[in-house]
Design goal:
The protein is an alpha+beta fold. 18% of the residues lie in helices and 43% in strands.
Length: 238
C-alpha cells in the first residue's frame, strides 16, 4: 500500500454511563491531487475500529469546494437499521465501522484494505470510502484549489438507542490543475491476478495439490510393484 498520512490521533473516549469505548480512526492516503481541466481525480479515505467496542457511525459531507466542481462520495448517504437492546433504530450515514480484532495476514477483499498500524500485531481491516472530484473545462491550468470534506462520527447509547456521543473531523486537499501532457494517473490493474486468485482459492488449490500428490505416489508405488514382479519373473527363468 502507498504511504499513508494518518490523520490526527486515534480518538478513544470512555462513556461512564454505558462503559463503552468509542474509537474513530481514519487514514488519508494523499492530500495533494493533480487533475486536467474537464477531468476527474479519485482518492480515498480509510476508516477502522480496532480500539473500540462500539459501532462507529460515520457521515461525510463537503465543507468547501470551488464553484462548478463536483464532489462524489461512495458510499453515499443512506439509512441503516440497528437493533439496540431490542429496539430498531435507523441511522442516516455513509458507512459504519464495527469493532474488529487484528488479522494475521492481508486479504483481498472488495471495499476493504488491510493496514499495518503501530503497536498492533497483525493487520487492521479498514473500510474504503472513494472520493471523486470533477473539475470544469474552464479550470485554469497551474492554479491550486482547496477542497475540504467534513466527517462526523457518532455512537448510539445502549439504553436510549439515540446518538449519545459525536465527534467531527475534516480532510483537506490541494487540487492542482495541470496540462494534459503533465498528467500522471495510476492505472488500476485489471484482468487476472495470480496473487488474488491464490488468496481467494487457497483451500481449493490445497485440495487439488493433495489429489495430485496422492495420484503421483500411487502411480510410483504401482510402477515399483510392477518392476518388482518383472524382476522376480526374470530371476525364476534364470
Amino acid at each position: 500500500m502507498k504511504k499513508a498520512i494518518i490523520i490526527g490521533l486515534v480518538l478513544i473516549m470512555i462513556s461512564i454511563a454505558s462503559a463503552q469505548v468509542y474509537n474513530y480512526a481514519s487514514v488519508q492516503p494523499g492530500k495533494v491531487l493533480n487533475v486536467i481541466p474537464g477531468g476527474e481525480v479519485t482518492t480515498k479515505l480509510l476508516f477502522y475500529n480496532y480500539y473500540g467496542d462500539a459501532i462507529t457511525h460515520i457521515s461525510l459531507f463537503p465543507i468547501s469546494i470551488p464553484e462548478g466542481w463536483v464532489l462524489e462520495i461512495d458510499p453515499a448517504v443512506h439509512n441503516d437499521t440497528f437493533d439496540v437492546s431490542g429496539e430498531l433504530v435507523t441511522v442516516s450515514e455513509n458507512l459504519f465501522v464495527s469493532p474488529e480484532e487484528a488479522y494475521p495476514e492481508k486479504r483481498v477483499e472488495e471495499g476493504y484494505e488491510y493496514l499495518e498500524v503501530a503497536g498492533v500485531d497483525g493487520y487492521v481491516r479498514a473500510k474504503v470510502v472513494n472520493i471523486v472530484i470533477r473539475v470544469p473545462e474552464d479550470a485554469e491550468v497551474r492554479e491550486v484549489f482547496d477542497v475540504k470534506i467534513g466527517s462526523r462520527a457518532a455512537w448510539l447509547g445502549l439504553q436510549s438507542g439515540t446518538i449519545s456521543v459525536k465527534q467531527e473531523r475534516g480532510f483537506s486537499y490541494q487540487v492542482k490543475i495541470v496540462p494534459e501532457e503533465e498528467y500522471i494517473r495510476f492505472v488500476e490493474p485489471t484482468g487476472f491476478s495470480v496473487l488474488g486468485f491464490v488468496q481467494e482459492n487457497t483451500v481449493i488449490i490445497l485440495i487439488f495439490t493433495l489429489i495430485i500428490l496422492s495420484i503421483t505416489m500411487f502411480y510410483m508405488a504401482f510402477m515399483l510393484k510392477k518392476k518388482g514382479k518383472i524382476a522376480s519373473k526374470r530371476r525364476k527363468k534364470k
